[in-house]
Amino acid sequence: MELQENADLLARVIESDGARRWLDFGLDPEAAELIAQRIAEQLRPSQPTVVLSFENEEDAVLAHLVARALGATRVILRSQEGLLWLSHAVPAGSRVAVVSCAKASSMANDVVAGVLETHDSSIVEVVELHLSDAAAMEPEQHDNE
Fold first, then answer.
1. How far is CA 21 from the centre of its chain?
2. How far is residue 132's CA from residue 130's CA, in Å, rounded to a whole number?
3. What is the pLDDT of residue 106?
4. Which of 135, 134, 144 is nearest to 23 (CA)?
5. Which positions ≥6 away from 12 have C-beta within 8 Å?
6. Cα separation, 55 vs 75, whole angstroms
7. 144 in Cβ contact with 113 (< 8 Å)
8. In this model, does residue 44 exceed pLDDT 90?
9. Residue 120 CB burial class (10 angstroms; 0-12, 13-18, ≥19)
10. Nearest 5°: phi and psi at 10?
11. CB within 8 A of 91, min separation 6: which ones?
12. What is the pLDDT of residues 11-32, one digit of tens each?
């Protein structure tokens, strides 16, 4: 993936009020779909069967588009008062790609891995899409395969 090409796509979905910047895939649905397709192409060699996101709107939209491009199931990691659960069960042995629009801490990824272990599934890739770094669309390899 060309860095400049990614930066141009990301620029089409970044909203700003002057003080803050955030992703808003509703600004340009075509750009959102192109970003998701590129992420899906990078994930395809790892053969994820599930795409997991966190509850926020932009993560859910991006994960939905990536899952559709991969032909994978999409699940949301929900949380309330310190309890975590998946929006629906994942089949045992699922290969999970975590898609997020923000940098997650390694602890957060460890927590996700722990939740998935209870379903006999594992993380095969993590994609964190950053406003400031189009190169963050590169997936991070995990050794949990």
1. 19
2. 5
3. 65
4. 134
5. 27, 28, 31
6. 10
7. yes
8. yes
9. exposed
10. -60, -40
11. 49, 119, 121
12. 899 988 888 888 899 999 999 9
SS (H, E, C) the chain: CCHHHHHHHHHCCEEECCCCEEECHHHCHHHHHHHHHHHHHHHHHHCCCEEEEECCHHHHHHHHHHHHHHCCEEEEEEEECCEEEECCCCCCCCEEEEEECCCCCHHHHHHHHHHHHCCCCEEEEEEECCCCCHHHHCCEECCCC
Long-range contacts of 113-118 (CB under 8 A, 24+ apart): 113/142, 113/144, 115/77, 115/84, 115/85, 115/86, 116/52, 116/90
The token pair at 90 is: 């994942």
Q: Note the pTM of the prediction, 2 decimals.
A: 0.83
> pLDDT tens digits, residue range 55-105?
889 999 999 999 999 999 999 999 888 888 899 999 999 999 999 987 666
Structure tokens at 66: 């990536």
Cβ contact 10:34 at 8 Å: no
The token pair that represents 123 in the structure block: 């993380």
CA–CA gap between residue 128 and residue 71 (Å, rounded): 20
